[in-house]
Structure formats: C-alpha cells, structure tokens
Amino acid sequence: MSADGRPGLLVLVVGPSGVGKDTLIDGARAALAHDPAIVFPRREITRPADAGGEDHRPVTPAEFRARRSSNAYALAWEAHGLGYGVPATILDDLDAGRTIVVNVSRGIIDTARRLARVRVLSLTVPAEILRRRLAARGRETVEDIEARVARATAFAVAGPDVVTVVNDGSIESALARVIDAIRSDAHAQGVSSF
Ligand SMILES: Nc1ncnc2c1ncn2[C@@H]1O[C@H](COP(=O)(O)OP(=O)(O)OP(=O)(O)O)[C@@H](O)[C@H]1O
Ligand SMILES: O=P(O)(O)OC[C@H]1O[C@H](OP(=O)(O)O)[C@H](O)[C@@H]1O
Q1: Residues that constitute the known binding site
Q2: For the whole model, what pTM was predicted?
Q3: What is the per-residue pLDDT for 193?
Q4: Residue 56 falls within a domain, yes or no?
Q5: Which residue among 49, 57, 135, 178 is buried most deeply as judged by most CB within 10 Å?
C-alpha cells in the first residue's frame, strides 16, 4: 500500500517519443483484456482524433485548461506543443486496488509517486533507432521528429521502482518483459535487453 493509502499500483510507461510505448501498451492491453483488475485508461490529448496513434479522447486547448483546473485529471502535462491528461477516474481504480497502465511524460513521475505505489517501465533505444521509427511512423514532420529526438535525453529516469526495458529487439520479446512487469506485484528491478 502506498503512503497515501491507495492499495492499487500505477504502472507508468515512459521513454522518449518513438521508443515504443504505445505499441507495447497496445500489446499488453490485448494480452491482459481478460483481467478486470488491470485498467488501461484513455488519455485526453489536444490532438485531433484522426492524427494516428493511440485511441485518445481529443480535447481543445481551452477544454484541456478548464478540465485541468477543475481537477478532472489525476495527471496532466504539456509536451511537443500538446496538452495531455489522465482522467481522475484512475484514482477510484487505485482506491479499489486495481493496476493502472498508462503512457506518461517522464516529467511527471515524481508527481505520480505521490498518488500511489508506482512501477516505472522505462523504455530505451539508441537515438538513431528512435529517428528511424518516428520517420517510418509518419505522424510528425521532419522538424518535429528532430525536436522529439532532441528531447529524448531531456530526463533522467531513476529510482528503486524503475524497471528498464531496452526495446531494440523484437516487439514480442519486449512485450513479454512488459507484461511480466505489469503482473508481478513484487518490485522488480534492473535492466533487460533483448
Ligand atoms: N521493437 C520494435 N521493433 C521495431 N519497431 C518498433 C518496435 N517497437 C515499436 N516500433 C515501432 O516504432 C514506432 C514508434 O512506436 P510507438 O508509436 O509505440 O512509440 P511511442 O513511444 O508511443 O511514441 P510517442 O511517445 O511519440 O507516442 C511505431 O511505428 C512502432 O511500430
Ligand atoms: O518526453 P516526455 O515528456 O517524457 O514524453 C512526452 C510525451 O511524449 C509522448 O507524446 P505523444 O504520444 O508522442 O504525443 C508521450 O505520450 C508523452 O506524453
């Protein structure tokens, strides 16, 4: 149980843009769909619904600001010129002892640690692979891709609750590691490379 008494577990999937967070979360969601104790919340983002990528709830910048100030988000941040919010309903799930799995900015890890017991899944790959993956994904312009690669090293992710997964091999091998880390309730630690 966390210091604030919430019995659930908050699994934060973090890492630079293009590292594979959404891909691995999608795979884990499909593999764990039978388990009602594991929740994959839908993020709210100031990005059009048809931009590609995850199934998010699109909000306007004004709506994002209003919802953020009325505490509709348990976690909220801005990155890449966009606003992101994780709905406050995750707090009810954490109170009920569920496991939440969500893609968040590396910048809000400490804030999340004050909400509940946290396990950080820190995904990494070398910058050249990031650039190649972002270009192949095709959602951003060349300028945006360079800005995202530059941001890759903007944060240090550290702590006893961090599990590092190097996603430079097959998606399947990284997914197996991610699913293990979501399911195992003991605090796993260390680095796995595939
Ligand atoms: N192990 C892998 N091998 C090859 N390609 C991969 C691997 N993991 C992810 N990819 C590909 O890399 C691209 C980026 O992955 P994804 O969109 O999941 O990254 P992300 O971390 O969620 O990025 P962002 O933060 O920008 O949303 C996708 O096209 C995905 O298919
Ligand atoms: O660099 P940091 O702050 O860790 O990550 C910032 C954001 O980058 C990605 O955004 P997107 O889904 O590509 O728009 C992640 O989802 C995260 O919200």
Answers
A1: 15-22
A2: 0.92
A3: 42
A4: no
A5: 178
